[in-house]
Amino acid sequence: MPLFGVYALFFADRGLDAAQITTMLAVWSVSAFVLEVPSGAWADVLDRRRLLVAAGVVYTAAFTCWLLVPSYAGFVAGFVLWSLSDAMKSGTFEAFLYDELAAVGREHRYGLVRSRAETAGVLTMAVAIAAAAPLHRIGGFELVGWVSVGVTLVHLLVALSLPRAARAEPPGPDDVAAEDLPEPEPVSVQAWLSALRSGLGEAVAAPAVRRVLLAYTTVVAVVGLDEFFNLVLADGGTSVGVIAWVMAGVVLAEAVGTWLADRVARLEGRAHAGLVLTGTLLLAAGAWTAGSGPWSFVALGAGYAVVSSAYVAGDIRLQATMSGDARATVTSVAALTAEVGFLVTLALVGLGTLVADLSVVVAGVALLLAVPATLTAWRAPPG
Predict the structure, then answer these.
(1) Over 50: is that where the pLDDT of 146 sits?
(2) Which pTM was predicted?
(3) Residues 227, 125 within the same domain
(4) pLDDT at position 179, please?
(5) Which helix (H) or strand (E) covers residue 1, if one does?
(6) What letter would DSSP give residue 5?
(7) Same domain, 152 and 298
(8) Could you tell me if residue 171 is inside a domain?
(9) Do 323 and 228 share a domain, yes or no?
């Protein structure tokens, strides 16, 4: 999506001030909170392929709304639609992938496939963000936007091409082949509530799942510091042109990290905790020394690669740890806890900037988060 890298500038170009943009982001966050877990329960009672297709339609509508109604109201509506689309996909995609692999007896390859898919997404994002600059020079924000809408249509076509997989059920004495499974019962409010209770129950009551969720949440809080990389580098005196190249390098480093996520998911105890601690300390060092030379850029990129790898590995651990039949709901609970972790990071940085420079604050927050991230990583079971 080329628009991802410049949509805040698009809003400003349409006359919105910083306060209005901030309130839109708040609406985006709140709507994501409200929709996340209930939508995961949808995916445990509805056909997941159809839900992914519907999410693709809503995704296209979100950005089309921005372009056809480029005003505060239109942007807010687009953000709400974007949240709905993300909520419909969150948990659904992961559970669909696991079920598709389980249907052919290859659920053990989930970690490898998931990490490779994440890497492909990161690399595609890097290319798309880089494409925004020439597209804007040629046709302004309108061209960037409509090309982005075209990308969402490709996303929709891919969703339409997905097969329908049988659901992975807990093992039992009466196991049958995937192709012999009956069609799911008609969807009802009772079935949705049952799936919601089952997923929330497993997330809270199962010790292994709970430990993975805690580790996932704390590492997401560290990953959330990436929202401030541009500003930290700028405060350190780095030029805009150099920042663009540094951020491209950070994204490529992230791709390496996600590529190795399936291996990271197999780490446990001291090795897992040491990896997370190393990544967090590198981020702190990169932020503290931002602008002092190339080593600060390397530290940021390397640290982000490590924590991104641990983040993707967290999902792999979660899918391997779950045993109930509400897989998508539990995954959505993880996404919700991740949102909480990210909001904690935003709050800490926001409060810190009242008394110190941003680079010092980001480094300090990274050091602060290193403690819970390391401790929870130590206790998380392998995937």
Answers:
(1) yes
(2) 0.68
(3) no
(4) 47
(5) none
(6) G
(7) no
(8) no
(9) yes
pLDDT band at 185 (very low <50, low <70, confident <90, very high): very low
Residue 3 and residue 139 in contact, taking contact as beta carbons nearer than 8 Å? no
Place of tokens 């405060």: 235
| CATH number of residue 209's parent domain | 1.20.1250.20
Residues 298 and 236 occupy one common structural domain: yes
Q: Which of 221, 209, 259 is nearest to 374 (CA)?
A: 221
pLDDT in tens, 89-110: 876 777 778 877 887 788 788 8
Q: Where are the alpha helices (DSSP H) in the chain?
A: 7-13, 18-43, 48-68, 72-89, 92-103, 110-160, 189-205, 207-223, 229-235, 240-259, 261-264, 269-288, 294-321, 327-352, 358-379
State which residues form the domain around 1.
Answer: 1-164
Residue 375 counted as domain residue: yes
Is there a contact between 114 and 261 (Cβ–Cβ < 8 Å)? yes
Q: What is the pLDDT of residue 305?
A: 95
191-204 tens-digit pLDDT: 545 555 665 666 66
Q: Is residue 54 located within the same domain as residue 103?
A: yes
* Average pLDDT rounded to a whole number, residues 32-46: 66
Which tops the pLDDT comparison, 31 or 273?
A: 273
Q: What is the chain's percent helix, strand, coil content, to nearest 5?
A: 80, 0, 20
Structure tokens at 194: 């049952």
Do residues 111 and 55 touch, judged by C-beta distance below 8 A? no
Using CA atoms, how far apart are residues 372 and 214, in angstroms rounded to an integer?
9
According to DSSP, residue 356 is labeled: S
CA dihedral for 314, 157, 82, 185, sign (positive or negative): negative
| 117, 141, 164 - which closes a domain | 164
- Tokens 């196991």 locate to 175
Residue type, 268: E
